[in-house]
Amino acid sequence: MNPTTPLLYTYRRCPYAMRARMALLVAGVGFDAHEIVLRDKPAAMLRASPKGTVPVLVLPDGAVLEQSWHIVQWALMQPNATADVQRWWSAAQTADNVALLQCNDGPFKHHLDRYKYPERFAGEAGNTPALSREEHRQRAVELLLQPLNTRLAAAPYLGGDAPCATDIGLFPFVRQFAAIDPARFDALPLPHLHRWLAGWVHSPLFAAVMHKLPSNAVCTWPHNHRPMSSPNPSSQPRIHLIYARASNGVIGKDGTMPWHLPEDLAHFKRTTLGCPVVMGRKTWDSLPARFRPLPGRLNVVISRQADWLASTGFTDKNSLQSACSLLEALQICEQTTSQQAVWVMGGAQIYAQAEPLASRAVVTEIDQAYDGDAYAPTLGPDWREVARERHVAASGLGYSFVTYER
Questions:
Q1: How far apart are CA 196 and CA 172, in angstroms?
Q2: Domains of the chain by residue range
Q3: What is the CATH number of domain 237-405?
Q4: Which pTM value belongs to this model?
Q5: CA distance 247 to 369
Q6: pLDDT tens string 224-253
Q7: What CATH number does the domain located at 1-229 have?
């Protein structure tokens, strides 16, 4: 340990420790880190902070910061910090942001713990009737996630156009909630929250924060000599939608497309070749067996069945992988390919989840109505048409290749 460097006792997956590490990296503060083992906490940490929970930051002068938010403040308000770094803290001091943090660290965390670890609280006594696991989940959604979504509808970050300490203060806990049941989280009608969470999960800052250290050893934290900033959109995969829809919005019936349009299939191949494609399990099932997985592309299939990939018999991970949620599918695409574009190809539920995160939609608009049971996602007023190609198929059916962006 360097006696002139702060020492952070931390635990990689702890959301409180995560927020402290994020603040230190945002500020560019060099520090040593001790990744603790929960069942064998270091004696030096317990001497410094008898409460025995992380994070704990021991400063070179012997002072000890035992609360994560105090560490965040200390890091962002260093005397030599730039104005941009100090703004991370000052923007978090608005009444709305203070209230969000209090909700997160208080009632939201209370319900999150009982949703994530119901067995730990099964015998919990209290003055009010015990809530079920599902009731704790719903309370957490209502207390924090819905208000967060409303806030993020007005600006990309809780600091407005730029992030603030409140963003990194809440992000690890929202991420923890989402990871309990990713498919159910993705299905929540909270598009602005989904976009915000995906941005942080894919950010270089989060990748740096999750650097894995050896356990029970003091190490100098890497890459901590310059400030790190907010999610960088240029480094994240661009999410695109691609689908064909009838004039009445239908995209499918009984798991198949209710039309035969070879020209659209050729267009789909030209557009997506070389890029990862993400689809739901039913969309995968609808593909002809001879075309599964789609060649020349990483196919990522979203399925709630943990053993789905093994059941297919495919072993080439460059061709086929599975995920339990859209967010996990996007992470797989980012980690396993160098392509920036990810094409989401259905079905209707996956389109609805991906639309808030997407920047482009390539749509084959067919000049005929069809009966169906699956419908295209709704593209709101923030989408604009940027290209249109009019065609007539060999069968005489009219259609257009249309590109929308936002």
A1: 12
A2: 1-229, 237-405
A3: 3.40.430.10
A4: 0.68
A5: 5
A6: 455 665 565 445 568 999 999 999 999 999
A7: 1.20.1050.130
